[in-house]
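Notes, Module 5: Reading structure tokens.

Key idea: the token line is not a picture. It is a compressed description, and you learn to read it the same way you learned to read a sequence, by spotting repeated patterns. We will look at two proteins. The first is printed below with its tokens.
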Amino acid sequence: MSKSRVALVRCESYDAEVVEKALARGLALLGGAAVFVRPGEPVLLKPNLLTPDPPERCVTTHPAVFQAVARLFQAAGSAVVYGDSPAVGSPASVAKKAGLEAVAAELGVTLADFVTPVEVSFPAGRQNKKFILAKAVADNTHALVNLPKMKTHGLMRATGAVKNLFGCVPGLLKAEFHVKLPNAHPFARMLVDLNLCVRPRLSIMDGVMAMQGNGPRSGTPLPVHALLISNDPVALDAVVTRLMDMDPQVPPTAQYGRESGLGTYLQEEIEILGDTVEALRPRRFKANKLAVSEKEPKGSVKFLKQWLVPRPVIARRRCTRCGTCVKMCPVSPKAVDWKAGDKSRPPVYTYDRCIRCYCCQELCPERAIKIRTPLLGRIVRRG
């Protein structure tokens, strides 16, 4: 059985020449870009454009990585387009804030349609037999190249190549998945089915500066100095979790990805080319490294869920009362809302409504929401 190959290469900075040299080295280790995308074949780049944040916040794919990848495929004769469906804001406004719009304009890379929804049948899906995808992805006229960002994540523990393709689902339709699939495990199965449906040719992860702690938007930047490249998104994510000093099985996409044939997380089935995990792993990477329970609480345990399961908590002093958390809460009635309509004070939670999707924490622009385990939950976990 052949192993999945992941190129792990040191990249010291976001200097354009440094990034292009590191990218060229990584692709050469895998046999070159032509192994994955035919010369001249149109290419769709799918960066992480979660929210309208500048590059230094480390929330989105850095423009230097985006530029290097775009130039590479253009040099091979490909017409290159790009896009993502952000959680907050329009694709164009987020691309501008994240610094990608200026790079794209300079290179003649156009913004693809990630707004128009198109239903796509996927009978091979183990859990999800159809998806509503952005038109640019559903048209299937371009080779899809995935450009994730190395970050922590409240629900999935780490967000990488597999999770980044959730942006192929346009607009508020993403919130519907959180309501239908509140547990991390069925949500992970959906992500795996989505990856199998859209079939990315290649994943190139920006880990030059990663995000640790309260990710994927409110954490702190941490230099890892790494680019990771693979056509196996599960294997790439497994190497990323090892860089985070996390068991590769912790993100539930790993297990389901291997079971579904998307890829592998097992160390003995992965060949790492280039630099070593040990050489690039930071001394400390702050993350929730505990596995997510697969069991849904029932009966009295379900009643106790609000006292056992980690929950989002608003730091009142940091809150600017922008209302993003209220807007993004996918349940009805809202689990976080203004008390008696009073917008002069921070919103409050009704935890027995909260499905623990952590959308509020994920998208808070002020880093005012953190995930905390209640006292009873900490006691049970210690036991």
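Here is the second protein, with the sequence above and the tokens below, as before.
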Amino acid sequence: MERVFVYGTLKRGERNHPLVERRVVKVLPGYVEGYRLFHLAEGPGRPYPYPGMVPGEGRVYGEVLFLPEEALSLLDELEEEGVEYRRVKVLVETEEGPLSAWAYVYLGDLEGAVWLPQGVWPA
């Protein structure tokens, strides 16, 4: 079983959650420290708005999805792992205590991006 911290379109109720919905075994709300969250607007190469989490001073809120290991390749493809995002291990604070999970850190240009100081997307 893998744990993936999601903070944008993969959260419950968001546009990409149906891609993993049937595979999700458990969901825990949580947050990570040491990251900043940005809103990336729709535009060239970006068919719809979504967020990007980058290292920095702050806190980002989201959900930990418990998924079978084979779901990671689907998420890597969606997130363009290694191109637009990098999958890294993060420490997530949850109601069940801290736990290690994968998260997708944004690698792209932040020009025109809007910082979300509350660490929640959508703002």
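Summary for the second protein:
- The two ends are 31 Å apart (CA to CA).
- The first strand starts at residue 2 and ends at 6.
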